[in-house]
Write a structure and sequence with these properties.
By secondary structure, the chain is of the alpha+beta class. 48% of the residues lie in helices and 14% in strands. It has helices at residues 11-27, 30-39, 44-52, 71-84, 86-103, 114-119, 236-242, 244-272, 284-312, 318-343, 345-348, 353-360, 371-381, and strands at 124-127, 143-147, 150-160, 168-174, 187-193, 199-203, 215-225, 229-230, 274-275, 278-279. Helix 1 (11-27) runs parallel beside helix 4 and helix 9 (284-312) runs antiparallel to helix 10 (318-343). The relative contact order is 0.11. Bound molecules: flavin-adenine dinucleotide.
């Protein structure tokens, strides 16, 4: 019988999924997940449990204190977390990116933080977006200068996940002028401690991904030791660029998790809810909507799996990971919409997880990179002129 579970997985991968399911079942049962979402809280007990089980360290080099694992393992974990609380999966992706960036020969003493980040003892945030730049990231305004033995950072970051919990934020800033008109040159990534006078963190409240801990960070001559530079000065975009494919398939895994959970709930509602003396799932119009959703989910999963295989094989994966991100996000937006229609009033009830999936699926359309930018990349890959 058709179901929403992944197909043809190794027993090890299935065990990994089961581990996440049982950990979250204990530390973040469904009613607690909805409460955490409503309160916009951080699911700290679940985070600690993920750290203790070594799951926050996935993607980090084992010799440096990470847990190793494959890209496919991390995608499976993010999918399982997203089924329960999509906002927590957003934070998980941030942590996974830190693992990869610190382990990938970043060549800075901050790489020594990996064990603490992997255990959950140290929480970090990634400050790229700003009030005036998101998609056009290279136009950022935050800057840093050297003053004796430290960096002095000035600027503002917006929509930064987990910043209210984090000890440190990896802040993308301009340290040097753009070389030969290339805006990607001269940008650096500096680990800025958040508990200091020059930093103010303000929580922002959103209609979706409410428990991801989204914040605004004001950097008013914030300081950081010179050693807190990650990788080479002025070359942040090459460090970030190396992890782009993985970030996109992790985002795709997050979409799969939301889509799968929403479709499971949708189908059970079709079986349970009655109208005109029969389950509403007996009406052809409603069956067709669910059929479109299982086809969407299955097609997305196949593309995500193909992108993961391509990355794991070390092939150039820019287009595959971009397509996986795009297709999974758009499919999930359709899946949650169909789920909401089928559940009608009960889908909007606070007690129903469908309203959470519906709101959270919006983020997937524009973050970590907007689907429109993905379309631009794919257009260029087909030999069409750059449109921006
Ligand atoms: C819950 C949440 C968590 C987040 N976490 C983080 C985080 O931890 N760290 C961080 O740095 N950021 C984070 N972000 C920010 C996120 O990465 C940005 O929202 C995203 O990059 C899009 O930027 P924007 O919202 O400024 O949209 P804009 O860049 O203003 O885009 C607006 C619209 O214009 C379109 N557009 C722009 N340029 C083009 C173009 N050339 N061609 C076609 N269309 C275009 C976009 O697709 C979009 O539809 C988070 C956001 C949210 C909501």
């Amino acid at each position: 019988m058709l179901n929403t579970r992944p197909f043809q997985e190794s027993p090890e991968r299935a065990d990994l999924r089961e581990l996440v399911e049982s950990l979250l079942g204990r530390h973040l049962p469904a009613d607690r997940a909805l409460a955490v979402d409503r309160e916009g809280a951080f699911a700290s007990a679940a985070w600690a449990a993920l750290g203790e089980a070594g799951l926050l360290g996935l993607g980090g080099d084992e010799t440096s204190g990470g847990s190793g694992g494959t890209v496919g393992d991390a995608v499976a974990v993010v999918e399982e977390i997203a089924r329960v609380l999509p906002s927590l999966a957003v934070d998980y992706v941030v942590c996974g990116m830190a693992m990869r960036m610190l382990g990938d020969g970043a060549g800075s003493p901050v790489a020594g933080w990996m064990p603490e980040i992997a255990s959950g003892a140290k929480v970090c945030a990634f400050g790229l977006s700003e009030p005036d730049v998101g998609t056009d990231l290279l136009g950022l305004r935050t800057s840093a200068r050297v003053d004796g033995d430290r960096w002095v950072v000035k600027g503002q970051k917006l929509w930064i996940s987990l910043a209210h919990e984090a000890e440190v934020a990896f802040v993308l800033c301009r340290t040097d002028p753009a070389e030969e008109g290339r805006r990607s040159r001269g940008l650096s990534l500096i680990a800025v401690p958040l508990d200091q006078e020059g930093v103010t963190v303000r929580r922002v409240h959103l209609a979706g991904m409410r428990a991801a801990g989204t914040c605004e960070i004001f950097l008013d001559d914030a300081v950081a030791p010179l050693d807190n530079l990650v990788g080479a000065r002025g070359r942040a975009m090459s460090i970030l660029g190396k992890t782009l494919d993985v970030e996109r398939v992790l985002a795709a895994g997050l979409s799969l998790g939301i889509g799968r959970a929403a479709l499971d709930l949708h189908v059970s509602h079709l079986k349970e809810r009655e109208a005109f003396g029969r389950p509403i799932g007996a009406f052809q119009a409603l069956q067709h909507a669910a059929a479109d959703s299982i086809a969407d989910l299955t097609a997305s999963r196949a593309l995500v799996d193909a992108a993961v295989r391509s990355i794991e094989a070390g092939e150039p994966s820019l287009e595959m990971s971009a397509m996986a991100k795009l297709v999974a996000a758009e499919s999930t937006a359709r899946i949650v919409d169909r789920g909401m229609r089928a559940m009608a009033a009960s889908g909007l009830a606070e007690e129903s997880a469908m309203q959470m999936y519906f709101r959270d699926a919006r983020l997937q359309l524009f973050s970590p990179v907007s689907n429109d930018m993905i379309r631009n990349i794919l257009g260029e890959s087909m030999g069409l002129p750059r449109s921006y």
